[in-house]
Write a structure and sequence with these properties.
Layout lengths: L5 E5 L7 E3 L14 E5 L23 H4 L26 E4 L1 H7 L6 E5 L9 H14 L4 E6 L2 H11 L10 E6 L6 H9 L3 E4 L4 H12 L5 E2 L5 H7 L1 H9 L7 E5 L4 H15 L8 E7 L4 H8 L11 H13 L19 H10 L4 E5 L1 H13 L6 H15 L9 E5 L7 H9 L29 H7 L16
This protein binds ligand F0G.
Length: about 475
């Protein structure tokens, strides 16, 4: 692969400035806008049909074919196969979720969950990290950094610990976390994998501002989703969805929105698939914000902000962000992963919403998130709160009759349940429970709450807890205890 076949290009169609792949500025040198990774497709060997990718299913000895990202390398051809850094990410499943359809009101067989919690670090971030690390190593970088609500830092730290630099030493990772919420599962990963972990006095938005400020002057490669190579990897989530559906395009993709990198990647995936003639239709996109961190909802749904072929109303965005500053607004949601009020990929998300059939944006409350998380878990899919925003959002869209019961819907479950066990235990017990003992139960309100029961160390009491009359069992004659 010759490098000039891939480059970076400003996303504003009125600007379209280009820079080489190895530029690390990540904003347009001409207008300051966001950058895409772009390709000279006519000169690249793109498959004639998505079915051609099936040839790779049998090549289990080739790590590039095992990776759910790199088996689609022809659709992210910014690096040669020999340069790819993979740890087997993207081996995730698209699961038909008939048990969930009954709760949300879709017809049987119409709902699929794309379970990204199965990635090596437990979230969808690994799809993007493998791509960005491929470039970081190619550029000879020795330090990488990100700001994070938790999952990006876990993924970054994991990939860094497995990346050997030219000098034979592991890549060093630096993570900036806010002083607000970070789920312990995620923090424990960053610490375990050896990241230099800096807790900043401020929220995610403050961390992102700082990491952007210091990275380039200190020769640190920035790994947040403003780095367009991250999004190249995340496009593969959509390829796997299509793969799971036998290359049929669903009617809807529903995804939680935080910093808006993921939905942006999905939009780019479909823009390109359409350009390449590899799909004949595009699904409609639904992005779901938490009500406590709802910038996209406010701008897109309430204020009617649209991409408008790149001529979106920048004053409207600036005024909204200024209003957040003036009112000292701090996002707040139980879905800590998406507790973000200044989403960096906002323009790309607007583009994605336009490209994916004039998509919709909704907000869901913490209560809706927690109830849907518990409901999904009860059917066998453990996900963290932010992920369940997608299912809660779908439920809302069905109630609003925006989605109809006969349509095919894919909800993206972005992160594993074990990322945030505290949220789960609190839902079921009503308590913050960091200790190993089960405290006396408190009243809980969750519809699916499954309270643990404290039982004395006594056979009779255990039988009672099991709903069994001990006198009608072979245990009857046994002495107590
Ligand atoms: N779901 C989970 C589990 C996440 O960790 C994130 C983002 C999102 C959804 C939202 O995705 O930002 O692309 O819109 N987590 C980032 C982090 C911000 O730092 O881990 P997005």
């Amino acid at each position: 692969m010759t490098p000039e076949l891939a480059f970076q290009r400003c996303i504003d169609p009125g600007c379209s400035a280009t820079v080489p792949v190895d530029s690390t500025q990540f904003t347009c040198p001409r207008c300051g806008g966001l950058m895409d990774v772009a390709y000279d497709w006519p000169r690249l060997p793109v498959p004639k049909s998505l079915r051609d990718f099936e040839a790779k299913w049998s090549l289990r000895s080739d790590p590039l074919c095992v990776s759910g990202v790199w088996r689609f390398i022809e659709l992210l051809p910014f690096a040669a196969a020999s340069q790819v850094l993979t740890i087997g990410e993207g081996q995730t499943i698209l699961q038909r979720a008939d048990a969930v359809v009954r709760f949300v009101g879709l017809n049987d067989g119409r709902l699929y969950l794309q379970y990204e919690g199965l990635n090596p670090s437990g979230s969808f971030k690994d799809n993007g990290m493998t791509a960005a690390f491929t470039l970081a190593r190619k550029l000879g970088r020795k330090r990488v950094a990100c700001a994070s609500t938790g999952n990006t830092s876990a993924s970054l730290a994991l990939y860094a610990s497995m990346t050997v630099c030219d000098d034979g030493r592991p890549m060093q990772s630096v993570v900036f976390i806010g002083s607000g919420k970070i789920a312990y599962g995620k923090l424990s990963q960053a610490l375990d994998y050896g990241a230099l972990t800096l807790q900043i006095d401020g929220d995610f938005d403050a961390c992102l501002r700082r990491v952007r400020e210091v990275s380039e002057p200190l020769s640190i490669y920035l790994m947040n989703s403003i780095n367009p190579f991250r999004l190249e990897g995340q496009k593969s989530i959509m390829y796997r969805v299509l793969e799971g559906l036998g290359w049929q395009v669903p009617d809807w993709i529903v995804v939680p929105g935080g910093n808006l990198g993921n939905c942006s990647a999905f939009g780019k995936a479909f823009l390109e698939l359409r350009e390449l003639g590899l799909v004949n239709k595009v699904p409609r996109l639904a992005v779901i914000n938490a009500a406590g961190a709802n910038t996209l909802y406010e701008l897109y749904t309430k204020q009617g902000l649209r991409w408008n072929a790149g001529r979106y109303n920048r004053d409207c965005v600036q005024a909204y962000l200024k209003h957040l500053d003036d009112t000292n607004y701090k996002p707040c949601t139980v879905a800590s992963a998406i507790e973000i009020s200044r989403p960096v990929s906002l323009p790309k998300a607007l583009r994605a919403l336009e490209a994916m059939n004039n998509g919709v944006v909704r907000q869901v409350t913490d209560e809706m998130i927690l109830e849907h998380r518990a409901m999904v878990a009860k059917t066998g899919f453990g996900c963290e709160p932010a992920s369940a925003a997608s299912v809660a959002g779908l439920h809302l869209l069905l109630q609003e009759q925006v989605v109809s019961p006969g349509e095919t819907v894919v909800c993206i479950l972005t992160g594993h349940e074990l990322k945030d066990p505290d949220a789960t235990v609190k839902y079921h017990t009503g308590l913050d429970m960091k200790a190993a003992t089960i405290p006396p139960a408190r009243p809980v309100h969750g519809k699916y709450a499954n309270r643990p029961i404290r039982v004395p160390d006594d056979v009779r009491a255990i039988c009672k807890a099991l709903g069994v009359d001990i006198d009608k069992t072979p245990l009857a004659g046994l002495p107590c205890r």
